[in-house]
Design goal:
45% of the residues lie in helices and 8% in strands. It has nine helices and four strands. Strand 2 (143-147) and strand 3 form a beta hairpin.
């Protein structure tokens, strides 16, 4: 039977920290990661939490390399690399210069895209994160969450606390419902509309935020093929 057991040695963890540890892929975020929560870091966690923490401890040079690669690959996937008003922006990124027009004005950038006659790239579906186990709050020491019945018609599983063999902890009771939903697949997507934000993100002054956000937008530009991008980004981080 499936059981989720509390740590009887160290005692129950603070509920907020317990949830945050689960949210961040099994480890608590650093102060720097907490400081970039205005970015898309929480979304990127659902796709590859290990990459998020690896980028955090990487130096600014690696972070900038990841940001630049992400912007380049996003534009390649969207068929924008050789577009006359996009190519100078990629060159500016590579040289560490400010982005040229129309990337220096968000409204102008989007208007330029809308008024262009770009050839549509290959049709891709939206990126879907891998499945992950649902979150369970920490049970009291000596107790475990166990499914109490078969899955319900609405897709939920009912869990209750069950005392572990040999435990002498006081009697307690609690229950919860865990829903296992399948998110809708988005698509086909318009890749240029995801690729251009990757260019803007790569120009962010903070190299960590630039890397996290550029990867996020490039990942969604690649859509269902995002694992190929992540492999290449991991190769840069491993150098």
């Amino acid at each position: 039977m499936h059981k989720l057991v509390a740590d009887e040695v160290g005692g129950a963890e603070d509920p907020q920290l317990h949830y945050e540890r689960w949210q961040w892929g099994g480890r608590l975020p650093s102060k720097r990661l907490r400081g970039v929560r205005g970015s898309n870091v929480l979304g990127l966690l659902t796709f590859d939490s290990d990459l998020v923490h690896t980028l955090d401890v990487a130096g600014p040079e690696v972070q900038r390399s990841v940001a630049l690669l992400s912007a380049q690959r996003a534009c390649e996937a969207a068929g924008l690399t050789d577009v006359e008003w996009v190519a100078p922006a990629l060159t500016a990124l590579a040289q560490g210069h400010p982005l040229p027009p129309p990337f220096d004005d968000d409204d102008q950038m989007w208007e330029t895209l809308r008024s262009s006659s770009l050839v549509a790239g290959p049709t891709v579906l939206g990126a879907m994160p891998p499945e992950r186990p649902p979150y369970f709050p920490p049970p009291p020491a000596g107790w475990a969450w166990v499914p109490s019945a078969e899955q319900r018609d609405d897709g939920a599983t009912h869990y209750e606390l069950d005392r572990l063999p040999g435990s002498r902890t006081p009697m307690t009771s609690a229950s919860l419902l865990v829903y296992h939903s399948t998110p809708d697949v988005r698509g086909p997507i318009s890749q240029p509309y995801f690729a251009l934000p990757a260019v803007l993100a790569a120009a962010e002054p903070d190299p960590l935020k630039a890397a996290l956000d550029a990867v996020w937008h490039a990942l969604h530009t690649h859509g269902e093929h995002y694992p190929e991008l992540l492999k290449e980004i991991w190769a840069v981080c491993s150098v």
